Amino acid sequence: MAALALVAVIATTWLARLPLKEQQVGFTCDPQACRQITAPQEGPGTPFMEGSIDLTGDGEPEIVQLEGHEIRVLQNGAEIWRSDPEWQVVDVALGDPNDDGRYEILAALWKPNNAGERLNHPYIIAHRGGTLKLIWGGSAVTYPIHELLLTDADGDGIQELCVLESAHPGDGGDASARTLSVWDWHGWGFNLRWRSEPGHYGNLGVTAGNTIVVTLKK
Ligand SMILES: [Ca+2]
Ligand SMILES: [Ca+2]
Ligand SMILES: [Ca+2]
Q: Is 17 helix (H, G, I), strand (E, B) or coil?
């Protein structure tokens, strides 16, 4: 019995030291839920660094950059907006998160509240009335957002919000576990459509065919 226990301990230690194996997995969605599919061959998602999108609505794209933890917007090479230095932006997605036919910046960021406590929020920044401004500040989320993107995952012509967030403690995950979730804009915020089981997900991306791709370590 003691020998068996010793073998078990050695096996556990050995397993714990094995490097986690990383694989790429894909997800596709229907209007109700999402399901895992064979991983597409395209490369993994990369962190947002720079993108271009027409925020002003004049038909000419602006450049949106993530510089450190600040967002910069450039028009004709000149900076026209920079995010509040108090915001620590962790990821950015460009698209139409609020389904109004105009393009905006969707950001996940940390921001101190009045008590100095850092809280994680999703924010929408838009060009309205001739200037870029915060038009929607989501309440602080309980489980921090690490990565987000906008894509039409179910092919109905409306973009969904896809998020990698910290897994809920007690769901069998550790501190580095994440869940993948897909959210629908409902008029003044997002409704959860679907959430994956916890896993070591990272590198959220999307293929040309709107398949959500993530790397999964296990
Ligand atoms: Ca423009
Ligand atoms: Ca919009
Ligand atoms: Ca859609």
A: helix
